[in-house]
Design goal:
- This protein has one domain (4-233): Alpha-Beta Barrel (TIM Barrel).
- The protein is built from nine helices and eight strands.
- The chain has helices at residues 4-27, 46-54, 65-74, 94-97, 110-122, 146-157, 181-193, 215-220, 230-233; strands at 36-40, 59-62, 82-85, 103-107, 127-133, 162-169, 206-208, 225-228.
- It has an eight-stranded parallel β-sheet with strand order 7-6-5-4-3-2-1-8.
- Helix 1 (4-27) packs across helix 2 (46-54).
- The longest helix has 24 residues, at 4-27.
- The chain starts with a helix and ends in a 9-residue tail after the last helix.
Length: 242
Amino acid sequence: MEDLSDSDAIADHVALIRQRIQAVAVQTGRDPNTIRLIAATKTVPVARIQTALDAGVIHLGESKLQEALPKLDALESRTDVTWHFIGQLQRRKVKAVIGRFQLIHSVDSLDLAHEINRRAEERALCQSVLLELNIGEESTKTGFSASELVKVLDVLDAMPNLAIKGLMAIPPPSEAPEAARPYFRAVRDLANSLKRPARHRIRLDELSMGMSHDFEIAIEEGATYVRIGAAIFGERPVKVST
């Protein structure tokens, strides 16, 4: 049985984050309804996710397919929920992700885009995705560099079963939220520079950027999706090696 105090805390956290989103939107002259809160639920059990849903969350983000699928099944009756795949996606797992997640945030290569397009064609559907940018050009991260993205945009535009909605990025880690601002701004500027005429299929209106420690900075720089885990559910337990 879920601890009622924990349930209350999650609801309070959701309400506070919504207040903070609203405040930043007002300060920057944005419509708060254009900024969607995704609860990042990696390692979070179904009962605690249910509490967040009861508190008004309607977007859930999962990072690991093996962990996510039982949660999708357990919450299948919640037809109001939009599921986001926000972790790194391996090509061999694309078939299981297609159609189960309404938006894939982590298309980090042309090969992965081709595989999603192929699998979506087999299912006779069009899969919505975001293109992942390695905005800090870090060797430890996957994703398109800005220059790579410019070169492959026409190839991506020609994939009929891929609905490209925007960009996703995670800036280099820093304890200071303000340090993320130039990276978020670079993502927004790149999206604006790559906006295509109506005759093209690619739309770059959505920007998935900002997490628990820096989401307000991300909103100031144009984020339309913010991915919040710890600020809702608390810090994840640290695994201790033995």
